[in-house]
Fold these 4 entries.
Entry 1:
Amino acid sequence: MINEESQRVRELLREIKYPGFSRDIIASGFVGDILAIGPMVEVEFKPDTRDETKVATMERQIRDVLQRANFADVQIRRIAPFVPEVPLRSAEDLAKELRKKPEGPSATMSRLMTPLQAEYLEEGELPEPDLLAIALGRHDVAPAAGYRPGGPNPLSGPRESIDYDIGIPVLQWDIDPHDPQAKTSQHEIKVGDWDYRVWWQAHRDSGLLYVSMQAMKEDWVDHDNNAVPHPIGRSEAVNLVYDERRNAVVAIYGTVRDFRPFVKAFGLAHDSETGAQGGPATQEAEQQ
């Protein structure tokens, strides 16, 4: 649980901008755990940039901000994705390496390349090398997680036969997006800077709505020391189960930082579907 002093440090760090961007380092996700005890503070710093000058600038600003706030001992613990042991190479360096290598499909296929790098290459631009791929080697091999050169290890655990029947129904298994007889709804909702796509299907006799949501937002990336629009942007996904009889969300799951904006977006979509006015989601939207 985050104590008040650690939370105060996190708010102080919002003053520091990611160089070249309007976002601060907290909003950019560069700050992890914070431990603050008396005059000592330790900050987990994970900048997602290949530019060591920018990293050094942000670290210097972190120290300045916290020392002004009377923290005498400021420790910064830098972790991945920035890996200082791997040399930082520019697009020009990569071009020199490519000229030294033999041409042909075999040479191209042997290089580790992310989808974003491939897009740059197709547009005639030389992408910067992926820092983590260089540090970790093959991106499809992770022995500790069960992914080896021959493929992933088979999943362990008990398994049932095809004729699964133990008397306990699993309502979620009745949901079929391709069922033409099922009652489904789809809406697009905007809340703040995020665009939400909301889809749900009503279970045939339980009063439950199984909801799938995706939030999308334009994002920017650091390319050649310049802030440019990301070709894909940011995307977050959440699923929830809504009980119409109790007017309540009974389950919600995903990997997002905060579920509340998704609940708000679903409430607005559901209100527009049912024609309800004056509900919590509608009132909150009208106040903004």
Entry 2:
Amino acid sequence: MERLFDDVRSAMPADIAFRLCNSRFDSKGVFARLYNILEARLRRARVNHVTGDLHFLVLGLPAKDTILTIHDCGNLHRLKGIRRALLKFLWFTWPLRHVRIVTTISEATKRELITLAGGRAVDIRVIPNCVSKEFVYTPLEPQTGFVRVMMIGTKPNKNVERMTAALAGLSVKVEVVGILTQEQRDLFALHKVPIRELGYISNAEVEEVYRRCDVLAFCSTLEGFGMPVLEAQATGRAVVTSSISSLPEVAGDAACLVDPYDVAAMHEGFKKVVENLPYRQELIARGLVNAARYTPEVIAERYAQVYREVANAR
């Protein structure tokens, strides 16, 4: 998230001056959160934009001068009972009622936020994430005998287990960014899919993994956006991703879309991309066009329009 807004700020039009403020405390405990709200109030400006996951900071800011960016509602899907109810009210329902404009990164997340607003009219704008300029087109090195597949992330929504089963029987080698569970490692062995587990690596190392892969496998069951899709496309790599959540919206017509809950359908998608080189090259060409819609300059201008609107409404 920090990298995203660093890229946006670096591309901001000249008429937009900004001051970056970081909360003193992590979001842990009542005192720390109340302090952060008070600190936000003391630092308020003509236009205020809360971009991190501390949505409740807007409670200390003038609603008419404040913009809130909500990236996703993922935590709500992982919690239950009283914890979910508290998170829903303090991070979503109440903050949504205390700002002039909410921005979010996909139409899929916007639909969730409309529901969370509880029938109250909220001005929600979709401004997608930008793809960093660090991800540049890199021609593929010739490779024979197998296709190099990249996976990124190992949490439950990343769907590693089904993707592993779907790759069985194909001539692939997989590199995984993240730490696998033992159960996930056992599944790769069971399906005889060769893997290299990279663990947690730096941004520069992730960029290198994109450059040396042929295909990104990113068939998540839930995403607020899906940055790896654009990062792979900008690098010039074919993408197999999900036909649900925000992923079709982000991928455009430049990815092989599959049902992430249907292993057989995923297998057919992977097989087509792995074994059909002209199709893979077509996805690469379309992906480069799609990624160009998400440059920092394009996204920065969309935020700048919102800032001007709020400033001029005073």
Entry 3:
Amino acid sequence: MLNKSSSLIKKCFGVVNKNDNFKYEVLNDKKIGILTLCNPKKRNSLSIQMVKDLSEQFKDIAAQDYASQNYAKVIILKSEGTVFSAGHDLKEIKELQDKNAHEEQKQLFQRCANMMAYIQQSLPQITIAQVHNFATAAGCQLACSCDLIVASKSASFSCPGVKIGLFCSTPGVALIRSMANQKKAFEMLVTGDPISAQEAYQHGMINQYVENNEDLEKETFKLAEKIASHSGETLGFGKQAFYKQKNMNDLGQVYDFASSVMAQNLRIEDCVEGIKAFTEKRHAHFKK
């Protein structure tokens, strides 16, 4: 149940897109979007159609011009029902398994993996996963693929595929890159056991957790507002550089790249305005 303040926040959003799997809303004056998985009957599973729909929506979000009414700087990813996401639809996987459709099986995992990679590598908006309960297998992968995670105390994260003979190899990619303790990540993969929001916070997997679901929306929105107060162009520029440098091993190469990025950043219009505003002791007025 939402508290009064979150109910008011929700009413301010205009629905941009909606189907049986998700709805996307934008709060125009805050430049914050909310993407909600809304197929609780199927535990918000990442079915073939769900992945297709979400992939198209992420690309549409990325394509929005700064001047567009539907442009957002920050995207909150959340879900309806008692489960954040149960991961892949095992009924679909079994059907492909029964048909020995090996190429289709690979495509199923590849399309999902491509969507996860797109969120971090190509989507300029900052994404925040708002996790209220179970994030399982590819559902855990989806949360970990977001730039930030806020969870309630009732949330849990798991990659239990090993328990049914299917090692969570693709969810493991996002999991390993989200946790400070890689041995803990490996333990999750080989035991299939879940970890609580508190454990996830201790291992650097999530940014913060709150005591109850009533505060979850409020705290997630507060974080989104803080981020969205900055230049969207600068945020997108910085996000792309952040993930690119993570994959570089040579420290000298990393600093060369980062120095070049900062020099380019200085030429961004909002950066010119920001530095000018600082020297003139006034608030910056970012256009993007």
Entry 4:
Amino acid sequence: MASLREIKDRISSVKSTLKITSAMKLVASSKLRKAQKEIENLRPYEQTLDEILAEVALKAPSACQSACCNEAAPVAIVAIASNNSLCGAFNVNVSKKLEELISSLGDRRFKLFCIGRKMSESVRSMGFDPEFVSSDLISHPTFDRSSELSRRLVSGFNAGEFSEVVIVYNRFISTSSQKPVVEPYLPYKMDNGELVHDAEEDDTTWDAIRFNEERKYIYEPDAAEIASSLMPQLLNLKFHAAVLDSAAAEQAARTIAMQTATDNAQNLLADLTLEYNKGRQQKITSEILDLVGGSIQ
């Protein structure tokens, strides 16, 4: 059994750790709220832009899609993780997803664009040399920084340097759930399939959809020119949304990890305090018995 001094030192150590995990949980929660707010502000604009392009695609479908001009070119893989650890299995999950993607490519060549220090370390541990590494993009995500890399990828795809571009990241679903996904980025294809009536939708909803389909627009300039000016904005926006999604997922994972660590520290502290009190009580009882035995003698 450990001495009372050792137990007391462990209690002091656990209390110090508990203060750290509690503080990190509060910081992560604050950053998570900020990241969620940025995503909520971005989504209405992205949704509206999608709707506009969907309307334009009815007149100029080819301008709203991009086709590969060099099938033999390597695949560009953008892998997004975090700069720091202490966020549960956040980095491990996205690294495993990247390994699965690389394995599925077979003999096809690829170039890796790493966002986050942990991702670049993981890629190098796999034996690959990344084409691009950035830690600032995930620590301080801004639209200008995201657009800079997005434009580089788009220009490389249009020039035939890449046959396709995919993004591997953790998608934020909720505070307790983050899903690693592989999202195709280029070539961009808009689904122009026919609308299908859903049995769960009422007639009013379906009439509204049918009305939108029959609307007539006057395009000035023409639809193709409008689509060509909106497509770069949409691609930049979708790339920035993926970065923000990963940033929010990271803070959510860190919040849960620090909450779990705090709960474990509190349980351990309660067990150590109980053990210390038992040992102290046993020591006092032993001393009392010694005193009583000495007085009788």
